[in-house]
Amino acid sequence: MNLLKRITILALMLMTVACDGDNQGVAFMQPPLKPGQVLDPDSLFAKTWPGKPALVKLNDGLILAIPPQYHAFWAHRHWLTGRDSSFRPPMALEKLPYAKLAGFTMHMPDFSGYTPDNYREDFDESRVEIIEITPAPMISMAPGAPGSYPPNMFQRVSTGPFRAFDPDKYEEKYGLRCYKNPDPESDKQYCYGKRDSDLEEYVLFRITVPPYQVTTRFPLMQTHYFSPKYGGLEIIWRTHTSNFPRWREIDAQIWKYIAAWNIAPKNQPIGSSPAATTR
Fold first, then answer.
1. Mind listing the pLDDT tens digit for each residue in 259-274?
2. How far apart (Å, rounded) are the C-alpha atoms in residues 169 and 76?
3. CB neighbours of residue 54 within 10 Å
4. Do the strands 127-135 and 233-240 form a parallel or antiparallel pair, or are they unpaired?
5. Residue 206: which H helix or E strand, with range?
6. Tens digits of residue pLDDT in 1-35
7. Three-state DSSP class for 106?
8. What distance in Å separates the CA atoms of residue 243 and residue 251, rounded to the nearest whole number?
9. Cα–Cα distance, 26 to 17 (Å, whole number)
């Protein structure tokens, strides 16, 4: 059974619990181990493994149950007591407070989560960090509106006396137009194009490209964009530039996980949440 199917089954299990409205428990999830691997019981991974997903309510139509291996669970601890600071089942969804944002982490090439072997790596080229999934108003799509709607962002950085590049000077890379930086000493480049052809959605990347500056230790590519999905969301994700050829697969997988992990009741309206609370 492939990874996405397993995650989908987990989401369906959680949805059943939520719809029942009682205090049923969710089966304890075992740590992700390689065949024959034995987890060191004294490791931070073993001592803090929660065994249940983190619950994050972004709006009434988008409540994520993020499996523990897809977020830094060992760091989600109270600084004084050491207790888990994430919300986890069993918990009635109506009692779950609204969060300002969600995030998760996955690893190439199979979009897997953290493991006992990689969770302490500071510079992991296979890591993809989804830094923010944030509710945002649909007015972001209005022409000229501030925010992260890619056509508006492209307009801002490609026009005017302080533009970042000449929109007529570009090369094609992996289905995107990548624009020549007028500063010969810079190792940054903007790339723009369609993210989702069916929905006419676009994406704008800022990418670190060779020759790298002497201060560049870990070259990254990052995007920050608005999508009208789920009533309006802003997405920020980044990864090592070596993953640029697979940017489209990475972005598509982010949305697959959002859909698979969403345990909001299906009859709930999709839209922005009331005044968000923090945890």
1. 999 999 986 666 545 4
2. 45
3. 25
4. antiparallel
5. strand 201-208
6. 454 444 444 444 444 444 433 333 568 999 999 99
7. strand
8. 11
9. 8
